[in-house]
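Sequence, C-alpha cells quoted for completeness.
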Amino acid sequence: MVRRATGPFAAEYRLLSAGIFALIVGIAFEFMAVATALPVAARELNGLGLYPWALTGFLGAAMFANGVAGELCDRIGPRLPLIAGAASFAVGLLVSGLSTSMEMLIGGRVVQGLGAGFVIVAVYVVIGGCYPDTHRPRVMSLLATAWVVPSVIGPFIAGGLTEFVSWRWAFLSLIPLLPLPLIAVLPRVKAAAGSHVRRSGRMQLAAAMAVGAALLQWAGLEAEGARWLTAAAAALIGVALVVTAVRRLFPAGTLRLRRGLPSVIAFRGVIAGGFFSCEAYVPLMLVEHRGATPTMAGLAVAATALGWSTGSWWQGRPGLKTRRTGLVRLGAAVTTVGVVVTGSSVVVTDAVIVPGWLAGVGLLVAGVGMGLSMSSNAVLLFEFSPEEDRGANSAAIQMSDSLGALVVIGGSGVVYAIWRETLPGTTLFGLVFGVSFLVMLAATFVAFRVRPTGVRPTERRGSSPRAAGRID
C-alpha cells in the first residue's frame, strides 16, 4: 500500500510548497553568499570603513518594504507583491554584481533589501491564507529547511568563486533562477485574496522607521569623528522617528512587552538583533583577525543553517507535546549559549589561543536555538492574528526583525569603526560580540513575555487553536 503524503507536501499543496521553498532558497543563498563575499568585496573596492552600511542598507530597505508589502497584501493579496519583490531583488543582484565602488554596492544591496522585504511578507501571507492551522508548524519548518542547502553549499560556492574567480558572481549567479519559483507559486495563491482593509500612512511610517534607523547608525559614524553635536542631533531624531513608527505600525503594547501578539512582535526584533549581529561579523573576524580564507569563513557561517533546520524540525514534529511558548524560551537560552561560544573564538593572546573553528560550533548551537524559537514564534503570530490583519502583522514581525538586526549590527559596526585602527583584534571583536551577548540576555527576558492573554482570534472565529504543540 502506497502511503500518501500529508502536510505541506500533500497533493493539493505540493507545488505551492515547492515554490515557496525555492523562493526562500534564493534569498537564503544570497544572504549567506554575501556574508562570505562581502569582506573581500569591501577590501577590493576600498570600502572596509563602509562595511556596516552594506549590511544595514539591505536591512533598512527590507524594513521599509515590509511595511508597504503588509498593507498591499491586506488590500490586494500577495500576488503582485511577490512579483514586484522578485523583480527588485533581481535588479539589486545585478547592480551589486557590477559595482565599481562601495557606494554602488551599497545601493545594490538596498534594492535587494526592497525585493526581499516584499517577498518575505507575501510568503507569510500565503502561508496564513493557503494552509490550515495544522500544517503551519511544518511549513515553518520547511522555511527553515530552505536555509539549509544554500547555507551549507552557498558559502562554500561563494567562497570558492570569491577566492578563485570573483566575488561578483556571488550576486550574478542567482539572477537566471528567480523566475522559476514564481511560476510554481503564483497560480496557487488565489485563496489568499485581499481583505480590502485600509490603513492610512503606513508607507510614510515605514519610511520614517527606516530613516530613523539609518540616522542612528549615522550618529555613530559622526561620533567616530568626534562630531558630537551632529551625532547627538542625529541620534535624537532617529530615536524619535523609530519610536513614533513602532507605536503606529506595531500592535499596541509592543514597547511595553504586553502579553500576546505584542510580545511576539517584540521578541522577534530582540533575538534577531542579538543573533544576526553575531553572525554578521563572524566572516569579517575570521578573515581579518584569524587569517581564514573566505571559503573557511563561509563554512563557519554555514553551520547556522544546519542548527537552525534541526531546531525548526524539532518544533514542527506532529506529535510534539511541549508548549510552544516553552520552545520560544528554550530557544532563546540555547541561542545565548551559542553566541558565547562563537565570541570565544576571537581570543588570541600570548597565554591562550582559542581555536577559530569554535566560531562554527557556536553558530551551530545558536542556530538550533533560533530554529526552536523563531519558528515557534511565527506559529504564535498566525494563531494570535485575526485573518484580516495577517498582512499587517506579518509585516510587523518582519519589520521588528529588520529593525532589531539593523540597530544591533549598526551599533556593533560603530564599535568596529571607532576602534578598528587602535585596538588589537581580540579586544576589538570581543567588544563586537559582547554587544550581541548583552542583547541575547535581553531576548531571553522578553521570551518569558511571549504568552497569550485572553481568547485568541482563532478561538473567536470558532476554528481549532491548537495547530501543533500546546499554548499555555
